[in-house]
Amino acid sequence: MTERESRIDWLIFTIVGGVLSLGLILKVGEYKEIYKDYKYERQKASHVTTQDGVRYYLYRDENKAVVVPLKRRYDIGSGGIYVTSKFYKGHIAVKDTVTYLFHKYPVTEVGKEAFEGCEELESVQLPNTIKKIGEKAFKNCKKLQTINWPDSLILIKRSAFSHCNSLREVELYGDCRILEYAFFECDALERFIYKRERVVKPNPETDPHVLLHLEKSIAGAAFYGCKNLSYVEIDALNATFYTFPSDIIGGGFEPIFGYDKALKEIHISPECRNIFFHEGSVYDKNTLDLLFCLPTVDSIYYVPEGANRILPHAFHGVPLKEIWLPTTITSICYDAFTDSTIVHLPQYTKIKIDDEAFNGEQTIEYYIKRPD
User: Fold this and answer.
1) What SS3 class is residue 208?
2) Model confidence over 299-309: pLDDT tens digits?
3) Which end of the chain has the lower number of beta carbons within 10 A, N or C?
């Protein structure tokens, strides 16, 4: 091989190596962008520390600490997905403050997916500094039996406790907002108590987040599929149920207690300003709209006179054979009925019926006088 050929080979090798290196740099850059999009962006956290078996991200600018997964590794082979390689087990006590480099950080959040998939986790003690429990924070903690509910808690995010199959009670005090699917299919859950011991009158200009969690209390499907849930007590002055999409709280497209086969009655304080329970259904106290019906009502169901609108998903999953609507009904919203049902409507009353109010499985019959 001549010296010229060697130089050509070296040049080709250099070019190919450069192209491959550039491709690798671009690929790494792509993964870095994915990393930036991930909830726990290391660059934004001032420090990371593990104390007494719990890992925290510390944010100096915001003066807070957030509980995060015990350890994560970045697996390029799985397409840039973060997977947890270590899990919390047994009993975990979260600190109220974390001291690092002589600075004290109050622990205010259980972060997104912090305990997700920790199947050997049995109990958690949270401090009274916790304000938020993040999305999927305890999802699939199948052995989690006990967790205290701090009065400071103001928000439980989407799917935070979904599929916690050993959790039996939820008792929330103070002012806490619950987003959709928060306790989805918690099979062992038997009791849900929701109380507010204090009433906050927020200023919409200075405290918009407080206003939101006061006005939007419990979103659609929050307790969907809790088949053993038998006792619900609502003793909160401003409690409100939302079973349909809202730009503020996200899309809750199912009734709050859908397919909760053991639930026959909800105890709602008469002092509650927004909702009340009557003969198997929950109504908006201000508009008399029917929010949703429990799936345990009789197969032939009479909506009482005075009810106004049938809201979306109101009878989702309710195994009715017949339903009789009163003469006061003004409209039936989309997806109000999902099961095969005979719907009796008053003959001489104009009712606005959405295009998708019935899914094609219902039979519509008109009556002149409703049976007693």
Assistant:
1) helix
2) 999 999 999 99
3) C
Q: What's the domain count of the chain?
A: 2
In tens, the pLDDT along 240-263 reads: 887 654 443 333 457 788 788 899
d(CA 165, CA 189): 8
Q: Domain holding 280: CATH number?
A: 3.80.10.10
- Determine the 3-state secondary structure of 31 from DSSP: helix
129 shares its domain with 229: yes
Residue with tokens 């009878």: 315
**pTM for the full predicted model:** 0.79
| Contact (CB, 8 A) for 135 and 112 | yes
- The residue-averaged pLDDT of 270-291 equals 91
Residues 6+ apart with CB under 8 A from 8: none
Q: Which residues contact 37 (CB under 8 A, 6 or more apart)?
A: none
Structural domain contains residue 360: yes
**8 part of a folded domain:** no
pLDDT for 28 beyond 70: no
CA angle 299, 301, 305 (to 5 degrees): 180
Q: Confirm if 305 and 327 have CB atoms less than 8 A apart.
A: yes
- Which of 279, 294, 309 is the last residue before a domain boundary? 294
Residues 134 and 173 in one domain: yes
Instruction: Examine the domain organization and report whether 174 and 275 are in the same domain.
Output: yes
